[in-house]
Amino acid sequence: MIQNNSNFKRSGAPARFMFYRNGSWINFPNEVLGDLRLGFLEGKPIMDLSIRGSNYLFDFLRMLQIDFLTENQRSIAWIDENGKCFFRKVFVDEEFAKSEENPENSKIEIEIRIDIDENSSKRKRDEFESNSNSNSNEDEAEIVHD
Fold first, then answer.
1. What is the pLDDT of residue 8?
2. Could you tell me which residues are beta bridge partners of residue 58?
3. Following DSSP, what letter does each residue of 35-64 receive, concatenated?
4. Which of 36, 38, 37, 63 shows the shortest CA–CA distance to 51?
């Protein structure tokens, strides 16, 4: 979030706003660009905007567009008038937000197989015990103050 805040503060006037959907960056329509640009230039870190009958919250600090009704989120980015690009480090897509609502869809199964050789385990244990004994002798050293 600190990086995103820095983006908001150091950016020039946005010449282009985009949103992230299905793995691609898509430009906002020109009528939306004008409203977003105005709010951005007024220094508003967060603004409400209605687009085609849906109400959204635009959070320039977190670089997110949030749908008021569904609470779906997606990343936003911009390119300023100097050609500098401002993108989040991690992109949020609407599909990602939907999968969080339904934990059944977001389960990841991982299979872990560990082969342990009894001889190597015993050898490591013996090495650890011998190191522990030598270290305990060092702990008994006398401390001399000048």
1. 73
2. 47, 65
3. HHHHHHHTT-SEEEEEETTEEEEEETTTTE
4. 36
